[in-house]
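Writing this down once: the sequence line spells out the residues, with the fold written below as integer tokens. This is how one looks:
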Amino acid sequence: MTGYRLFGAETSPYSFKVRSALRFKGAEFEWIERTAANEAEFRALAKTPTVPLLIAPDGAASQDSTEILAALEAAIPEPPAQPHDPALAAISLILKEYGDEWLNKAMFQQRWGQRPDRDAAALRVLTQLNGGKRPRTYKAAANQIAARMVARLPLVGAEAENAATLETSARRFALRLNTHLKDHLFVFGGHPSAADFALAAQYQQMLTDPTPAAWLNDHAPFVVAWCAHMEDPKASGPYAELNALLPTLTALFDGEVSRTFLPWARANTAATLRGTKRFSVTLDDGLFEQATQVYAGRSFHSLRRRVEEAKDSPGLTEFLARADAAQFFVR
């Protein structure tokens, strides 16, 4: 085998994230839409029943999108997919985590927690599994897919009680990101980063669902254009200096990330360490309660360590203080 093989789905944000990174790196790869016809091969290679599944040229398999992007960076260092500046890299990782672990909740809730989005998504999933063709009799099967996904909403904290908070959060971030992207091709200037791959993947999915797509097209045209560019991103220049990004980059944090994701992540991580099954946290938008997410807790613990390692980088401590985020990285 000379290239990579990527099993994925058009309905999976993490598949989008990995495919976008492979394209940016110029890697030779085969995109394999997961279907009923290749399910046996997929299960023989996968450790978990979820996409993406990336098979490297040496045969190694990986399904964690964050680990995949890190491995790609090591295997194909040029063009870089993270800033060399440690401060920008740390900020990028925080935004990456926001996309993977918080914005995903909003995407998932808006897709499966309401109609007509749920019905449309279930049919897309069924069509994908059927090799791109809608079955002649599809309603019962689509309803089964919808019911299965609705049952998963509480597992990620996307139950009905949290719906308003998640929708408000995703829209608030989109408005601030839209302002930021008016002056920058990517989050950190002329070059994509881990933040771009993670955030765009979630908004790309929202743009396939009727309700969030209508809102994004009406209120965040620069986000919509950026999502289209992130399908196959091309750098137009270097990463910007932190000082050049400060006004609108800070607003992403003090207006949203530091108000929702970071207090949630701290509370979830504490619950993980205590071994409790559920936790609650009071956000600016109200009480947010859900089942403890162990993977997210471990991931945030790792993020704290990475930020701590970069704390002496010029500008990082000042940025975190200015963004009202410093308290979340005190270990």
Observations:
- The two ends are 45 Å apart (CA to CA).
